[in-house]
Amino acid sequence: MSGSILINGLFIFMLAGFIGFEVIRRVSPLLHTPLMSLTNALDAIAVVGAIVLVGEHKSTLSTVLGTIAVVAATSNIVGGFLITDRMLKMFKSSRPAAKS
Amino acid sequence: MNEFAGNQVIIEVVYLLASALFILSLKWMSSPTTARHGVWAGELGMLLAIGGTLLHHGIVDYQWIAIALVLGTIIGIPLGRVQMTAVPQRTALSHAFGALCVTLVGTAEFYLGTPHISRFMMAVLSMEVILGSLTFTGSLMAAGKLQEVLPQRPLTYKGQNLVNFLLLLIAVVLAVYLVLHPEAKQLYPFMLLIALAFGVLLVIPIGGADMPTVISLLNAYAGLSAAAMGFVLNNKLLIVAGALDGSSGLILSVIMSKAMNRSFTNVLFGAFGQVQSTGAAGHEAKPVKSATAEEAAAILSAANKVVVVPGYGMAVAQAQHKVRELYDALTKRGVDVRFAIHPVAGRMPGHMNVLLAEADIPYDRLMDMDDINGDFPQTDVALVIGANDVTNPAARTDSTSPIYGMPILDVDKAHTVMVIKRGMSPGFAGIDNPLYYLDNNLMLFGDAKAFVGSIVRELTGGGGH
Q1: What is the pTM of this model?
Q2: B309 has which bridge partners?
């Protein structure tokens, strides 16, 4: 049972890792800061685990820890997307007709 | 279980969609023209995933979820509105928050599950918690150093690496023991505390100049700990997001350490900036040539090709907007102005690009080191503003220099080099720069913002405008 979960998980991890390498290798150094704040926001998807933990309300400890976890992750989601978009808005090209 | 199958299927499908959106989100980041679509895709994926999760059959109480989501949003908004110079510490702080979330969830799962935790589960859970907690404290330390609340100089002592290694070893031994005996829950807090302490000790010996590498590495750890959490919760979306974040952090760490000609182990275990410049202190005062703003303006306006080399000092002096005015004034006169960005200019990967973009300098004028280095011999003027070590030719020529072998911007090959600097003191890493004594080098002594301002005044005032 847990063996097949492990293998399934490792398959997904391996494939996502390769996709990550291939996709992120192509990101221009120009955008490395927004890239990091974006992946940071995406990483805060851990919030889904914390939400279930809080909602299931299995023990006081798990609810308290889960609630703090949801707060931390949500602030990453909101702050991360917000600042990434703010940064990207600033990147402007000189007009296409500009001399090279 | 079957009566819940309906919702469970919806959740899995939503997670699948969110995974696809996350991958698209990163794909669109490859170019500035599509990057904002990437943010929207990420936001949509996140909304879907959270919405789907709320349908989870096990959730019996929404009150605390709602409170936490609102609180998190309230904290998140100011964190999304910080100044661009503060983005590195904000990023470090958000690594800490992400790692905190992972550690807390892992801890809760441990106490809910013990003593009936399978070995496999306990193994990934330990990995999640050890990585999460060392990333949490490590990132807090990094944020403190970047915010300059903590000393930026590396703190080192004899046997430091041994102490760190032993601590990590003890944490791992505890983890292995817990895997074999998951009922020994009194050991869990020790594993947690040791990992937390290890995070602090890991970052203490790392100096300010190495921060870009450290932030990237902590980024990778944060991703890996989230992926481990995905294994614990059997949540494929988390595994995907963690793997994406982990590979992103790893790629950036590799780029950063290559840009400093150092290996990971060297960054983590060999504190930089222990001022080997004691050797350089033997330098007697050598003659340097200096110039006034008026002379600098004359040289710049006579040039065809100018390359500006900005460093973090430019951002500290808040000079980027004056630099934009200089760019405008020179471009108006038909001078070709470009910017050479070293990968470790600034305090995190790509930081300098953001600071220049904020000053409205078009991104197609910002060049990577590899793209511009071949052009320096054809460049009339290289203007160095607030950068030092990344222009140090000793990295190419002097095998005794601590930065020997580090790729640098070859500004010394330009016809004329002008360096704006407050005085002759060595840079961040405490290394003397022979560039300043070269024949084609002019020192422009003064504050970056004020000096660039006076060059601009000379150019616009004296130019008949």
Answers
A1: 0.90
A2: B384
Q: Is B388 at the interface with chain A, CB within 8 A?
A: no
pLDDT surpasses 50 at B98: yes
With H, G, I as helix, E, B as strand and everything else as coil, classify residue A95.
coil
Q: Are B95 and B218 in contact (CB under 8 A)?
A: yes
Measured between beta carbons, the chain B residues lying within 8 angstroms of A85 are: 36, 39
For B341, the 3-state DSSP assignment is strand
ipTM for the complex shown:
0.93
Residue A58 in 3-state DSSP? coil
Q: Which domain holds residue A13?
A: 2-90
B273 interfaces chain A, CB cutoff of 8 Å = no
Task: Indicate the length of chain A as a whole number.
Answer: 100
To probe the interface with B, which of A6, A37, A65, A71 has the most B CB atoms within 10 Å?
Answer: A71
Cβ-based contacts of A94 with chain B (< 8 Å): 362, 364-365
B460 part of contact set with chain A, CB < 8 Å? no
Residue A64 covered by a domain = yes
> Can you spell out the DSSP letters for B75-122?
HHHHHTS--GGGHHHHHHHHHHHHHHHHHHHHHHHHHHHTTS--HHHH
The number of distinct structural domains making up chain A is: 1
Q: Quick check: is B389 catalytic? A: yes
CATH number of B286-462: 3.40.50.1220
Are A41 and B42 a contacting pair at CB < 8 A? yes
State the pLDDT at residue B261: 83
Domain ranges for chain B? 1-61, 82-269, 286-462
